[in-house]
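User: what does the whole thing look like in 3D?
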Amino acid sequence: MEKKVSITDIARKVGVSVALVSYVMNGREKEKRVGKETVKKIRRAAEELNYQPNQIARSLRLGSTKTIGLVVADIANPFFGQFARIVEDEAFKAGYTVVFGSSDEDDIKSAFVLDTLLNRQVDGLIVIPSEGTVKQINGLVRKKKPFVLFDRYFKEVNCNHIILDNYKGTNIATRYLVEKGHRKIALVAYKTSLVHMTERIRGYTEALKEAGIDHTKYLAEIKFSHSYKDFENSFRAFFNKHSDIEALICANNGLSINSLYYIRQNCIRIPGDIDFIGFDGGEPFDLYSTPLSFVRQPIEEMGREVVKLLTDLMNGSTKVSHIMLDPELVIREIRNC
Amino acid sequence: MEKKVSITDIARKVGVSVALVSYVMNGREKEKRVGKETVKKIRRAAEELNYQPNQIARSLRLGSTKTIGLVVADIANPFFGQFARIVEDEAFKAGYTVVFGSSDEDDIKSAFVLDTLLNRQVDGLIVIPSEGTVKQINGLVRKKKPFVLFDRYFKEVNCNHIILDNYKGTNIATRYLVEKGHRKIALVAYKTSLVHMTERIRGYTEALKEAGIDHTKYLAEIKFSHSYKDFENSFRAFFNKHSDIEALICANNGLSINSLYYIRQNCIRIPGDIDFIGFDGGEPFDLYSTPLSFVRQPIEEMGREVVKLLTDLMNGSTKVSHIMLDPELVIREIRNC
DNA sequence: AATATATGCTTAAACGTTTAAATATAAAAA
DNA sequence: TTTTTATATTTAAACGTTTAAGCATATATT
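Assistant: Here's the predicted 3D structure for the full assembly of 674 residues, as structure tokens:
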């Protein structure tokens, strides 16, 4: 790899000190009253040598890398991919680059990723925290590192977070199905202590309670796993036990997709055999045999808010915000062809 | 943000020079013959102060950031998201972190992203080059920056690249449809000079030629756009003009998805009205009314190979590799429920 | 006793920037 | 003329590491 040209090379070529070059390269020639001729010469030399500033050196000196770290569960998951894209764009506009890492919903991996990003001196972090990472998040608080949690948070940690009104998400979905006349409404959720899930479960149970329907019978809390097989086994057990299910709500995108694979494989018809409401939407929802209903998260807005909040923090704000955005129930009609 | 603890803080606390601390922190205490007692004291102090190395300072000194830059068209696109994930994992194993940027298939944006990553001194780059970025890629060659192109390349630039045998991809798809008895086989592709597309088109036309079928009539080369509306307009014009199409091949994932939206909206039946072969697969393909056939790219293998090639380059290899991997035609049966 | 070797540690430069402070010169004001 | 002010530039330290080179001291070898 070619030796990169530095500010020193330009200084030598023009015959001035590095300070002047630095001033000019940063557009501070007026403020620092650099001679007009000198400015021109420096500009020309920079051009000729094809100078590119070394952001690493700059970062070290300034104590800021203009980089933000993004910890997602899995960048390959379209929901997180979409989120990452919005973060990227917003960060870019604000002059930041994003470094990312996938935690795989695993606390050990999460710790690794977090350490890596911190060692790389990211100025701030956006974290989708996995189960069992309270300590890690508390560590960020202790370090006074600017960061905001997204999608989930911990009740025991007072920090910035932006989440969906998860309760409302499943609540409106359940109510909708109840009003439609269903009584045997199942919810498939992950067995976890993470609030986004417990809230989604609560939204469901409360809606059922209110309607005077048993709210425990059709609740499937299954263990998280990366393997579809594991999901399938748990789900089959549940489904076989309750062959009278009239409607199914899925508590997140992954569960929705997995459920659809199962449903498809087992020749269960939507609608007909069961009604279905998923989470987050996406291409598979649109292109399924019939368009599928789902709980929509305002992901664009959330992404924008997250970055805005973080940049405020990085600019010195000390306000702690807990932002909760509203979901929207998107009901799709049966296709007539 | 708390002042980070540095090697100097540890040195001061223990009462030794920073050099010793550095040696110990890098596990070179044997080689550099640091006293046993001192090692212990340094370790303890590092623990107590919760020392985390500053990778930025390290990078500046060593001239290597242990970072690789990834330029994709759009991280929100599942194909690229999946690829990014593989790259991330492989890079992580090799001790690298990945910084990414989306080029949006736009040369201006690509230049920005590339510059940003270069200024951040990435040790190497993985680039999915957009149209009109030959100059940028040539720039990398001139700088002797280790990089490898993925998915596409430029005939005029001799550099490392890993691509699919694109010709073969559409060729086997077309042959399959011909053998099935179709003669009016359409290909929807992007109008671009990028080889991955031109090769996919060539694979299609050659297969048709060989079968003695007119190979221009049913070829739709449409302009790339981020808007579905634009796609729809071009596609509709094409479809209306050729209402006798028997089968449709889509030249990449985005086109496949867009086509499916159109097909669905216009009540065209797969199979029945037309046969369909898409590109890259994914959840929408599996969950469509009937499972859809597609040309599969060995993306895992490609991702692994890309990172392997790049790490070799970063470790000083000067070999230029052009790797081409085989696609696989995945034919799906009609669902019987 | 003189020399060589081993052990343990320090010094200081370097990486490429930024920037406060100092310096030098010219022009304006006293 | 001397002093002040404005203009143009340099100096040098700092950011947190790594590492070659040097310096003591103790022990082993002649």
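In plain terms: Residues 4, 6-8, 18-19, 22-23, 26, 32, 53-62 of chain A lie near DNA strand C (CB under 10 Å from a C1'). The domain at 166-297 of chain A is CATH 3.40.50.2300 (Rossmann fold).
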